Amino acid sequence: MFDVGKKFFQHGVMQSVRIRGARSLSGAVEIGGSKNAALPILAASILTGEQISLKLLPQLDDISLMLSILKKLGGEVSIGGGCAAIKMESVGTEPDGDAVRRMRASICLLGPMLARRGEAILALPGGCVIGPRPIDLHLKGFQKLGCEVEPVNGKIRIRAKRLVGNRIYLGGRHGSTVTGTANILCAATLAKGMTEIHFAACEPEIVDLCNFLVKMGAKIGGIGSPTLAVEGVDVLHGAEHELTVDRIQAGTFALLAPMVRGDIAIAPVTISHCAALLDVLEQMGVPVDVGDRSIVVRGGDCQIGPANVSTMAYPGFPTDLQAALCALVTQANGVSTISEGIYCQRFAHVGELARMGAKIRLDGGGVTVEGPAKLSGAELSAVDLRGGACLYMAALAANGESTIANVRHVDRGYEHFEEKLRSLGADVERF
């Protein structure tokens, strides 16, 4: 059980880890529920005054923060055993500004609040420093549904007397918007008439949100495709739902196995969600045994080849695994190139890898990495969630001892990360 609204570690106190590397790690890892699916689904609980129940809810700082926001908006929240029960009989129109500024996913509150209350006031959300992530597509979608948007004292106020369905195109410079799709989808469920969302995100987390909304009584066609058809209903009801498993956490451990020369069994895994990852591992010569709901990555004896990868929207290689792949290719034989097609500035980990001895350089919208490199322990600092996990991986493969500061970023997205690493044989200590 974890407390709603409290950090797992003391807020305001620098949290660091000490890792002694160059150990072969092997064993089995259990994957929990998806953070990226949980956050918009938690926000969608606002759409009904009845109770919703979620299973496989990960114990993460971002989840705790979102639950705190819902509670301050008027919700009743209870947590225990990886499950959450939420009842939003009354809903405010302005979430806690401090909490919103700490988490990018708080933007997903807008659509449900508009659908339920006809008004939402939101401070600009924060989150990881990985480059510009404008919300212009969200606002464009809301305006198409009949909303008025205006800035108020550094916040955004969005209002509508009645949401009305429309045809909405959500494509942008870097493709579709995942949180934008979640927002417009939630708003459309209670809008009058039919809404067509074109260039909708197809990520498994959006599919999971759609499935949850359907259980609540929403009418959604085209689930899993780039065109969603939403017929508005008058009311949504309570529902029970088990979250999809975290494909990013599974991918991180899969990319770790060849780095630490071990065999790691990973389950449960939705294999279809990992097609791009499995293709990259095959390209690099890393053997993988694929089961119905599990994979075993056999990194013990393989010769790691280079990779040539560009991150893309699903079903392409996920941007959330770009940093982890950067860590792995430092140990590959040859020159690897990794391009970032989603967040052009998501390379804060590059400098830290270079300090450890990686032959890595920024090259336009990506990186070029020459391997294998002898990594040495160093004093490091995480500046974002996925980059922080990348530094754990590099430290586990490096000779000597490393310290990583600011690991609160990693706590936001990896459930029991250090505990799972220790179960594989890692020497990891938090201080």
How are the strands ordered across the major sheet? 21-22-1-23
Distance between the termini: 23 Å
> What is the tally of beta strands?
23
Q: In terms of per-residue confidence, which ranges show pLDDT below 50 for 5 or more consecutive residues?
A: 1-12, 127-133
> CATH superfamily membership of the largest domain, which one?
Enolpyruvate transferase domain
Strand residues, percent: 15-25%
Briefly note the structural class of the backbone. alpha+beta
Shape: elongated
What is the CATH class of the largest domain?
A: Alpha Beta
Q: And the CATH topology of the largest domain?
A: UDP-n-acetylglucosamine1-carboxyvinyl-transferase, Chain
Largest sheet: 4 strands, mixed
Quickly count the helices.
14
Just name the CATH architecture of the largest domain. Answer: Alpha-beta prism
Rounded to the nearest angstrom, the radius of gyration is: 21 Å
Please give the domain count.
Answer: 2
**Residues in helix, %:** 25-40%
Q: What's the pLDDT, averaged over the residues?
A: 92
